[in-house]
Amino acid sequence: MAWTGLGHAAVELDQYVFGWSPDVPLAVGGSSEQMLAMSYDAGRSGTLARIDLVLGCSEGSPGTVTVELQELAADGTPAGVALSSLSRAADGISLDAGITEFDMPPVAVSAGTGYAVVLSATDDASCATRRGGGPMWHSSGVRDAFFDARPNPPGWEPLTIGGSTAWVPFWVYVETGGGSPDGPRFCDFETADGVPNDWVPNDVPLCSCARDPGLVAHRCWFVTPDFMLWRSLGLPLGSPRARAEWTLVPMVPDLPAVTIEEFDPDGQFGSEPIDFRAGGRPGKAVSRRARYFGEAEVSEILIRVDHADQPQVILFRSTIEIPEPQQ
Length: 327
Prior knowledge:
- By secondary structure, this protein is mostly beta strands.
- The chain has two domains: 11-175, Jelly Rolls (Sandwich); 206-319, Sandwich (Immunoglobulin-like).
- 0% of the residues lie in helices and 49% in strands.
- The protein is built from no helices and 25 strands.
- Strands 1, 2, 4, 7, 8, 10 and 15 form a seven-stranded antiparallel β-sheet that branches. Strands 6-5-9-3-11-12 form a six-stranded antiparallel β-sheet, with no helix packed on it.
- β18 and β19 (243-250) form a beta hairpin.
């Protein structure tokens, strides 16, 4: 199975912040002339290909929106010199904040080097991004979030809401020059209980399991270009009727209905079907709870995406291996 939307051949996703809160806008431009920035350490060497951001602009808004890639200054803030820059008319960006692609002018990037994605708009524009997901939703190279806005003196300050960092969702794609992409592969991980990942297929681009030292819950997620799925399974699994929570985060508008079933091939473990209706708001999480029957260490997860032309079926394995309690 080949996922659509991952970019062209040899273009791979480098760093990202997934997920966003539709109801928490972060304005850019306008009377405050606010600029926003996300810093990161590049994980891949190659040529910058594309930067995706979550953007929404008022219908008919004048002005332009600009995205830049900058190197970092010694203090870790954007250095102020654009390595690559692209502007788009605000009236060409939908009011409903969604993922907007910027095919950036190519520039060489190097693994291990610090960069910043800087988002700005003219003072006559009426545009905003959204607050992004927390550290659990980041790639390993993501560093900090900043803003620069009037009436404050010019200069970058940490971007916070209520004392917590307000991350900005972004995706940086790099042309690696290595032929057909073998990634993005953020699927090399161990679960909280130390089980290495050897069960997620290569056509699932991004995935991880949370490291939970207290083993309060077994949490795993994976991402396709169209949606993110998150499963939290409470521990210990001693009850034959355990409960789990699945969370779906649409990444695109008009996502079809999604149904999930989990079962053991030998019939010893299973769940009720988990149904997510079509038409969820991009970036807004929807959760469903399911009961699990029986006990097993390995299950198969079947996910059906009801595209009108041809339903898409995703099948992969999930390892749940719980260590013996400490005496």
